[in-house]
Write a structure and sequence with these properties.
single chain; 8 helices; 169 residues; Barnase, Chain D; 4-stranded parallel beta sheet
Length: 169
Amino acid sequence: MFKHDIGEWQRKDFQILLNGSISLYHKEDILEEDIKWFAKHGYVISEINLQEVQTEEEFHSLIKQCLNFPSYYGENLNALGDCIFSLEISNESGLLLVFRNFDLFYKKMPSLAYNVLNILEINSRRLMLTDRRLITFAHSNKLDLDIPPIGACSVMWNNREWLKNGANS
């Protein structure tokens, strides 16, 4: 948990999380500098190079291995969300997930790539509720990578009235 302190507000992790948990990177030197900052501040760094990924199955195999998912990982997007939320992440720091060559993955499988980022964003917010941090860096070789907004939340009815109101419509 961050402290209510101006020094905390200047941290790289705090600055990123202000606008969501995912940041795009183009320049390798800036990416490497920020990865070093996170390592210095106790984050576990997990990197996946997506350059050679050609299928959804290959993606799931890579992320399963990288994040040490259990053997029962279902290798689909629902299972990805479940396993991300179940990750053992230190509440002293967090987990930094780095996707190298994300633009190539996005070009080959835009729907999968978008959904993966969406799942990571939503679960990062959920993890913060239990004092765990997940931040994702997505490296792009191209400056024109344009990803639609992710992590949108609907305005929901409260738990005691949602069924009643839904049934009355």
